[in-house]
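Model it.
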Amino acid sequence: MMASNHKRLRLIIGGMVSALILAACVSPPEPYEASALTTKALLENIPAGMTLQLGEVEVSGAVEQNPRCRGVGPIKPTGELSMQDYLANALKAELEAADVYDLADGKRINLLLTDIQLNTFSDPSWMIVLQVSDEAKDGYVVLYKMPMTVPLDGWQACGRAEGSFRQALSGAIRVALSEPRLSEFVY
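Modeled.
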């Protein structure tokens, strides 16, 4: 009888420890904050006085919105927001930080997330592919790969990968908005 109680207690404690480890592995994503580097790049790339607004911000149906992390399973790099809403908020934050966002008169730019890949193994990185276009659907594609500099060993790997998504998206948006072809179609 006593051995049975000890066994049951060990199972309960083991379950609680497992739940704590899984909870620690999934941290809420950082809210998106505009980057000073992106602001500078955007202001250098568009004509003075030019204003922009959000056009269509979409995510390709082929994009895995909750990428898989190792054997743990899917992570939620955008938290409770959809990938589309997170992407729209990020682009709007960058335009507002550069003081070029104008909902009424700004030139519309569209953003399509066409691919996202998470690697948490030997060469940990995020890879993001964005297509930028205007109302006429002219545009260009940028690929941004960000190596993760945080250690991804142990049970914190997926939480750290999830937490670094904002930084990767910021880099991808910076590359997209500093692309010389942007200034060609915002005139």
